[in-house]
Amino acid sequence: MSATSTSVNGNGKYKVIGTRPIRPDGVDKVTGRALYGIDMNLTGMLYGQILRSPHPHARIRGIDTSKAAALEGVRAVVTAKDLPPAGADEVISLVEGTFRLTHLRSNILAGDKVLYQGHSVAAVAATSLHIAEEALRLIEVDYEILPDVVDVVAAMQEDAPLLHDDLTTQEFGEDSGKKSNIASHIQFKLGDLEKGFAESDIIVEEEFNTASVHQGYIESHNATAEWKTDGQLTVWTSTQGAFGVQKQTAGILGIPVSKVKVVPMEIGGGFGGKIPVYLAPQAALLSKLTGRAVKIVMTRTDVFQSTGPTPASYVKVKLGADKTGKLLAAEANIAFAAGAFPGSPIGAGAVCVFSCYDIPNGLVNGYDVVLNKPRSAAYRAPGSTQVNFAVETLVDEIAEKLGMDPIEIRLLNAAEEGMRRVDGAVYPRIGCRETLEQARAHEHYQTPLTGPHRGRGIATGFWMNAGLKSTVTASVNEDGTVNLMEGSTDIGGSRASIAMQFAEVLGLPAEAINPMVGDTSSVGYTELTGGSRVTFATGWAAYEAANEVKRILITKAALYWEAKVEEVRFEDGDFIHASDPEKRLSFKELASHLVDLGGPVVGTGAVDPDSGVGGSFTTCLADVEVDPETGKVKILRFTMVQDAGTAIHPSYVEGQMQGGSAQGIGWALNEEYFYSEGRMKNASFLDYRMPTCLDLPMIETVIVEVPHPQHPFGVRGVGEASIVPPPAAIANAIYDAVGVRLRDLPMRPDRIFSACLEKQAATVAT
Amino acid sequence: MVIGDIERKLRLQNFEYSAPVTVKEAIDLLAGDNCGARILAGGTDLIVQLRQGHLSTDRVVDIKRLPDCNKLSYDPSEGLILGAAVPCHRIYGDETIVKTYPGLIDAAAIIGGIQIQGRATVGGNLCNSSPSADTIPILIAYRAECEIAGPTGTRKVPVEDFCTAPGKNILQKGEILLALHLPSVAKSSGAHYLRFIPRFEMDIAVVGAGAYVELDEEGRSFKKARIGLAAVAPTPLFAREAGDLLQGKEVSEASIDAAALAAQSIARPISDMRAPAEYRKHLVKVLTKRALWGAVRRARGEFVPNAVQENGR
Questions:
Q1: DSSP 8-state code for residue A266
Q2: What CATH number was assigned to the domain covering residues A467-607?
Q3: What span, in angstroms and rounded, lies between the C-alpha atoms of B182 and A738?
Q4: Does A301 contact B311 at a Cβ distance shorter than 8 Å?
C-alpha cells in the first residue's frame, strides 16, 4: 500500500520471513464469508438490550422492571441484584493490572450508583429486538442526580464530587486511607533532579492537556451467550483475547473458568478496546434465566458512551539541557482520567514519558484519577501518546532555542543499549538511534519544504511491547500441509506472521500452513492480542512447535530408513540420511509416509517469554499546511520510521505503521469526546471526527530492523509505537508553519486560529 | 440532521410504505393521513432520523415514482428544473448543469460521501430544513423557487422563504415539493458554494456560504450579487444587503471585504460540538469572501474546481 517502503538492515538470511504471501484469512474477509459476532444466529435465540444511564452521576433509589417484564415477548430482565455479591477485597488479575471484582461487576450492571452517561443499569431479553427496545422504555429507574466531574484536574481537587465512597488513594503502593478520586499515586526517581536543573543552561516547562479519544474500531461490541442446563456457558464474541473474556466473565458471574467456553469470532478492530467485557455477563445471566441463547449488539452510540476511551490527560513536563542540547534533568506530573473505575495506564505513561532519551536525572509523578466518564480502556501504546505529546513538543522548543536541528538534538540524547530509564529499567539493544538516522537520511527530510504557512515537524516515540503466554499446536497432514492452532485472535494479519515463522523453521512455503484461531477449549492458554506481543510471543510458540515437529519427523525418517535418529539430519526443508545422502525425503514426501510410521505428528509450543525492556521506537516526519484564516491543517506528507526488529511480513508491518499513524493524526487534529454538562455530545462517527481518506496523505513507511536480542527471529512487535509520535510531530509542524505552540489535543481549527490571533495581538502589542 | 445528542435510541419501528405514481395520489395519501405521514425522497435524512428516534411515523410516502419529481431539464431561457427526487449524482453527472450551475455542483458533490450522493436529493436537503444544509445557500444565491403541489393547487415560493426553523418549513399538510426552478444564468455570471468543515469530507458544515454574481462584460464590476449562508442561524440565511452592496461596485478586495462584513453582521451562530459561536462568526467573513471570489473567477471564465474535480472522481 505504501508509496515507498524501505527495509533497513534486512539480512536476507530467511526464506519465508520477509516475503509477502497472501494472508490466510483474506479471501473470507473480502468475500464477506468471515463470521463475526453479529453473524451468530442460534435456534430460539433471544435478543438482548441494555438500559443505560442518561446521567453522568446519580444514585439509584430504585428500579421497577415489572412493566417491562410483563410486556409480551419479553423473557427476562436483569439488574445488578442478579449478579452474585462480591466481597470487598475480591480481585481479578488481568494483563492490564489487578482489578477489584466489585468494580468490574458495577461496570456490567450498576449497583447503587451510575457513574457515567451510558452506564449499564438493566438488561432485557426478548423474542425480537423491537420488543427488547420497547421493554427498555418500560423500566422505571428512580435516580437521585448527583454532581458530576469529567475534568481530570477538577476531579483531583479536595472538594470534587467523590465517585466511590470506599476509594482511598494508594500512595506508592500503600493505602493512605485518604478518600479521594485519586486512586493511586506512583513515582519514579533517577539521579539528582535538583542538581540536574541547577546545571542546566536552558529550562522549559509547560502544561499539556489531551482529550478522551476512542479506539474507533469499525465493528461494535457484541456477545452471544448460551448457558445450558448442565451449567456450561458458551460465549461467542468479538474480543482481543478469549481467555481474558473467560476470566472476566467467570469472575463477574462467580463461576469457575472451566464452566465458561469463549469462542472468539473474527474481529473488526480492537486497538485495546476489546479487552474488557461489556456484554457477555449480561447475555449469560439472561440466557440462564430463559434457557435460550441471547445475543446483544451495541449501537455506535453505546460504543462511544459506554466503552473504553483512552484516558484524557493533564501532563506537566519540565526539561533542562546544557548549551550543547544535552538533556540533564526531566520532571513530569501526569494525571490520567481512568474513567468511572481505577485502572488507567498511568504506570505505562510514567515509564514512557522520558523513554526516548538518556537523561541522568528524572522525577515522574503519576496519578490515576476516577471521574464520571466510561471506564477507560487500553488504546494502542496506552498512555504513551499523551506523555509523548508534551515531551516531544518541549524537546523541539529546546532545539529551537539553541538553534539546533530537531533530529540532531534527538540523536544527541537518544536512548541506547545500557541506558537506565527513569523507572530503573536498563535497555538492551534497541533501535531508537536507527529510526532517527533513517528519518534524517530519508528523502522526505532531505527535501526542503517550501511555500507559505507550511511547516515540518518531527517526533520520536516508544512503546515497551509485551511478551506473555502463548500456545501453538501444529498437526502434520499427510499431504504435507500443517494445521496450526493458535490462541491469538487475528487483528492485523497475525495468522500470516505466525504461520510464516513456523514455515521458516521447516523450510516450508507459507501456504503449506493452515493457521486457525482456537477457542478456550481447543488451544492452550494464550494471553490477549495486545501489547504488540502476538508476532513476538505466539510466533515464538510457533517456532517451538515447529522445532518439535522437526524433532519428531527426524525420528520418523529414521524409522522409514531403519536408521538411527542421529543419522538423520534436516537441511533446506529436506530430511537427509547422513551416511547415505542419496536418501533424501522432502517434508511432503515424509508426510505421505506417516500413516505407516506410527501415526500422527503433533508439535506444541507453549511459551511465556519476557520481552525485555527493548520495545519498539518510531520516528515520524510530518509536513503540514495551515490555513491562516481558518486554522485548518492539511497534512501534506507523512513518513513513519519504525524499528520492527525483524519484519516477518513487511506488508503487515507497514499496515500497522500506517494504521497507527492514521490514528495518531486523528488524535492530533480532530478526535475528542465533546462534553457538555457531563454528557458526551458527539457520540457518532459524524461528529466524532476520525480521519477519512481525504484527511490523510499516503503514509510512507520505513522499516528499520534491529533484531530483538532474545527472540529466535529477532521480532520486536510493531502494533503500537506508530501512534505515539504523530501528535507531537504535527504540533511541531504547525509551529514551524505559523509560529504557534498548541498545548492541547485535539489541535482543532478553532484552537489554532485562536492561537494565531493571540500571537498577532501579542506582536502588535510589543 | 441532528445526531449524537441521543438519550433514547429506537431502531426503526413498523410503518406503512406507499409509492404513488401520480401527484394527486400522493397528495391524497398525505392529506388523508392523521399519523404524521413523512415524505421519502433519497431517505438519507429520513431513515436516519426514524432510526434515531427523532421522528416517528406510521406512513412513509415515497415520491421517487412521481415523474414530476424526477425531472432534470435545462433550457437556456427557462433555466433549470430540478425534480425533488433527483439524486445528487445525476446532477453532477450532467455536463450541461456542471457547466451552467457550477455553484450547485459545489454543494451537490459534498453532501455526505459518494454512496450518500447516489441517493440524496437537493429537494430532500431543502425539506429537511437543517440550518447547515449545504444546498440551500446556493439555491438562495441562484434565486431558486420551490414548486409546491397541495390539496388546493400548486404554489411557488422563493427558497429563502421556505425554511422557518431548524427542521421546519412552510409545507402544509398534504403538500409536496415537486421541483426546484433555478432561473437561467446571465452571461458573465458565476457562482460558488463552499463550507468550512474540520475534516476534508463527510462533516456537517460549520459554516457554509454560497454566492452568485453577475459581472459587466469586462468582468470588472458587479451587476448584481446574491449571497446565502448556512449554519449561522436557525434557518439558512439570505444575506440580501451584503449582495446589494456589491451592485455596481468594482470587483476589488475592498468591495468584497465590505460585502463579507455585511454578511457577517447578520450571522447569529450558536456554540456547539461543531464549533464555538465566535469562531463561526469569523468564518462567515472568510467564507463569504472566498465564495464571492470563486464566483467572480468563474464569471471571468477561470477554472475553480468543484469537489468531484478536486478529488478525481
A1: B
A2: 3.30.365.10
A3: 43
A4: no
Residue B72 belongs to a domain with what CATH number? 3.30.465.10
The answer to whether B92 contacts chain A (CB < 8 Å) is no
A373-384 pLDDT per residue, tens:
999 999 999 999
> What's the confidence (pLDDT) of residue A8?
45
Q: Which domain holds residue B221?
A: 189-300
Asked if B173 and B203 sit in the same domain, the reply is no
- Reply yes or no on whether the pLDDT at A148 is more than 90: yes
Query: What are the residues facing B148 on neighbouring strands?
Result: B155, B177
Query: What stretches of A313-364 show up as alpha helix (H) in DSSP?
Result: 346-352
Calculate how close chain B gets to A695, using CA atoms only, in Å: 6
Read out DSSP for A108-173? HS--SEE-STT-EEEEEEESSHHHHHHHHHT-EEEEEE------HHHHTSTTSPPS-TT-EEEETT
Q: Are residues B155 and B246 in the same domain?
A: no
Judged by CB atoms closer than 8 Å, whether chains meet at B199 and A684 is answered as no
Is the minimum CB–CB distance between B246 and chain A shorter than 8 Å? no
Q: What is the chain B residue with the closest CA to A753?
A: B279
| Mutation to test the A interface, candidates B1, B11, B200, most A Cβ within 10 Å | B200
**Nearest residue of chain B to residue A136 (CA atoms):** B8
Q: A187 is written with which cell numbers?
A: 513515582
Question: Reduced to 3 states, what is the DSSP secondary structure of residue A101?
Answer: helix
Please tell me whether residues B119 and B151 are part of one structural domain. yes
Q: How many domains does chain B have?
A: 3
> Which cell numbers hold the place of A700?
510512507
Name the packing angle between helices A726-738 and A749-765 (round to 10°).
40
| Residues of A tagged active-site | 720
> Are B4 and A691 inside 8 Å of each other by CB?
no
A-chain residues near B311 (CB < 8 A): 694
| B200 → closest Cβ in A299, A630, A692 | A692
Of A136, A695, A750, the CB nearest to B200: A695
Are B32 and B118 members of one domain?
A: no
B159 part of a folded domain: yes
Residue ranges of domains in chain A:
37-146+220-296, 467-607
Q: What is the third-level CATH fold of A37-146+220-296?
A: Aldehyde Oxidoreductase; domain 3 (3.90.1170)
CATH number at residue B277: 3.30.390.50
Which three three-digit cell numbers place residue A424? 530503573
* B198 and B153 in a common domain: no
Evaluate whether B179 touches B83 at the Cβ level (below 8 Å).
Answer: yes
In angstroms, rounded to a whole number, what is the distance separating the alpha carbons of residues A29 and B238? 50
Which residues in chain B are closer than 8 Å to A299, comparing Cβ atoms?
9
- pLDDT at residue B4, rounded to an integer: 34
The candidate with the shortest Cα–Cα distance to A316, out of A204, A416, A233, is A204
Closest-approach residue (CA) in chain A for B273? A674
Q: Using alpha carbons only, what angle is made at residue A158 by residues A156 and A161, rounded to the nearest 5 degrees? A: 75
Q: Are residues B244 and B139 in the same domain?
A: no
B8 lies in some domain: no
* Alpha-carbon distance A665 to nearest alpha carbon in chain B (angstroms): 12
What's the average pLDDT block by block, 10 residues per block, for chain B (313 residues)? 40 84 96 87 94 86 97 96 98 96 97 94 98 98 98 97 98 97 96 97 96 97 98 98 98 98 98 96 98 98 92 71
Q: Which residue of B has its CA nearest to A747?
A: B198
**Strand, helix or coil for residue A683:** coil
Q: Do B196 and A687 touch (CB under 8 A)?
A: no
| Residue range A180-192: mean pLDDT, rounded | 98
B3–A634 CB contact, under 8 Å: no
Q: What is the ipTM of this complex?
A: 0.94
- Predicted confidence at residue A86, as pLDDT, reads 73
B155: in domain = yes
Same domain, B173 and B195: no
Give a yes or no: residue B308 inside a domain: no
